[in-house]
Write the structure tokens for this entry.
Amino acid sequence: MEHRRYEIVNQNSEYLFLRDISNNTYCKVDYTYSDEHWQAWSIHEDKPFFNYILVDDKPDTVIFGVPFKNGSRASTSTADKFPTILRQASYKLLHPNQYPDSIPLNLFHLDTSKLIECGKIMDVGNVTMNGNLSERESISQVTSYCVKNSLPFICVGGDHSYTFDVVASLELLNKPIVLWVLDAHNDLYGNESHLDHGNVFSHIANLPFIKAIVQVGSRGYRTVGQIVEHPKVIQIPKAQFSSELMKHWLQEFSDYANYISIDLDCLDPQLFPYVDFGVPGGFSRAELLSIVDMIFNENGQVVGVDIVEGTEGGSVMKGDYDIPLEILLSILNQFFIHPKKEGLYKSDYSRKGIEF
Ligand SMILES: [Mn+2]
């Protein structure tokens, strides 16, 4: 018997509108809404962020999951589960678009009484090992696709080591790139021959097109032997952070393309403890969001962002993952409101069909 897979496109109190994934056809079925059903649907792993299905090929931002933990030094890490957890958190903000027209994702922010425009998003799902392609090659394929088609992207990890594969694909831009990293650690220490989440930035620093790596938020103690310096790496420890210092470095590197890597352990563990190596004294939600705002506002040319190192342990329903969700929304909004600057991408700005 043939098994068909469906995605929910829209739902109301009476009907579910479904898309038949393999045939790309739509249908409407009777449906009685209840909270229990909502929760049952919420654990369906094939649903995209916000239940938002883009039916054309012109997204403002591409999102993909990197559900891997092979680069983690925590043997029991559940960082591989985080893309699915964050999708589940997003279903509290269901935004089914209307077939056949994609409608932009707009949210209302109660705190500021503002409409938050996130544009049209395309969740291409979790990157997987695909045929002959390894997980690292698959990441490279999706990232290269975004770069070639001038699409800003958000990568949801996964452990931090996979930032290397994403950033390595940015070579296609043919521009020097500055990385802005929010992290409790510097991720520069460890066996050089083995890439992992603890030394990922010593590998990235060696890529020739990387101009600089600005690390913000490190804190706590290390043994002296664990301290590694690199001429391309600028470190702003959490305790020395100030907006002025941040703006100084943003101005220093204002002519380059930017990439932002957010390790969720940069947050204070009292706010978000669902990481493998938490360190007390981290950033508040507002501080983190303002740093991201600063990067977009001062320098503008942000190619992509990753959000990594989240793990299991919290409850989606109790709001334990609302802070990373808010970070994701804030970045979608930034990508949407900041028009792409001249020169970042080729002048013949064009998008192709969605084929990898
Ligand atoms: Mn890290």
